[in-house]
Amino acid sequence: MKAIRNGFREAEKLFLEFAEKQVEEVGDIDRSGSCAIVILIVDDTCYVANVGDSRAVMSGDQGEKVYVLSNDHKPTDEVEIKRIVENGGKIYQNTSTIPHPNPTFKGQQQVIYGPHRVFPGRLSVSRTFGDIEAKLPKLEGNPLVVIAEPDITAFKIT
User: Fold this and answer.
1) Within a 10 A sphere around the Cβ of 93, how many other Cβ atoms?
2) Which residues, at least 6 apart from 141, have a Cβ–Cβ distance to it below 8 Å?
3) How many other C-beta atoms can be found within 10 angstroms of the C-beta atom of residue 36?
4) Fewest CB within 10 angstroms: 16, 19, 44, 121, which?
């Protein structure tokens, strides 16, 4: 598991270095980011590592069963909420109002709710690679809020 964690840390480091170098090469910071899921099978052990909302499932018993192998890192997850808030981040949800589409409610407003998001970063996931604006203090980010630390699980397979 240590090797997987080190691989994710190195990928994050390289992603952020690339993003910053774009200022010199292109004139602007690369603001992109990504989620990832890695499955590694060593002998009879399956390791699953994920950052973000990429998903992995596995079938068993000749397709009769489905096993969920990953959990989404969303700002509505209790573990993520606690981690984000304890590290100085916030979770918010945008709303807007529009005229109600049903003629019966003429003159009334309907509230539209957007996805829950993490601040800093305005992201709808709480763990990513990259997304430099969410992470670098000089860009008003916080490296402890949106992180690239994977959840890793391991289990025996037959």
Assistant:
1) 12
2) 120, 121, 132, 133, 134, 135
3) 16
4) 44
